[in-house]
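Here is an idea for our session: we take a single protein and study its fold together. Which protein we use is up to you, so please pick one and set it down. Once you have written the record down, we can walk along the chain together:
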Amino acid sequence: MALLPGQWTLANLRTLIRQECDMVNSQFITDAEFNSYIAYSQLELYDLLVQKYGNDYYSALDSNANEYRITTDGVNDHFKLPDGSATYTFPDASTCPPFYKLLGVDLYLNGTNKSSRINVYPFSYAERNKFSAPNLPAWGGRLRLQYRLEGGVASSVTVPAPAYLWLVPLPSNGQTVGVRYVPRLTPVANDTDVADGVSGWEEYIVVDVAIKALAKEESDPSVMMARKMALLKRIEEASENRDVGSPATVADVRDDFGRGGSWGPWSGGPY
């Protein structure tokens, strides 16, 4: 398999780390132990990139760039988010990766017509019952939906706790809600598994593991620690915007039925 620039197999990463630590011919740290170090460092890098880049790199989409979608039933207000099982599928029928962090929620006003999407905004826990008073649905269902993330309880030590999307007021039957999210990372585990460093950031994994290895050997890791700080600075500086031609700006150009003001022709006025 041909690898793209910035992509490295687990075996390649382990070799680089052994070279950096001068442990090529040493088994003071075994391959299995290096693999566990690499997995934890890969997760650390992933968290860092998700924090800095979010949906620029890590939005869970299907082959047609569609997000995960929920169809409401008029009965439930809590909807479990994908856990990696075949129960949860994208519109193209492929399995959704497990949920990690939420990027945004959309409400479709007309089937799955993308031009009919509006934003759904979060509500605070203190506002959970603000729609308990009579709240009649407008054409196409309830338009004033808001959401909150809630966690469940893990069924075992190997199965992550489920995450739920809580919608208020109770959505009408047959409404479509799009969920854009960052998937969980599956760390490399086999020698042929590929880690994607995107822009050479796999060096962060190499340096971070080297620090751990040198510390275990009771050698001085200060040079590696300085390199790690330089890499962190590079990622910070590069994360300003992926689209360097048109930097992002904050602009709310349409009231999306969740923040008051003009409610538009669909709702029949505030309620």
About this structure: The radius of gyration is 23 Å. The chain has four helices and nine strands.
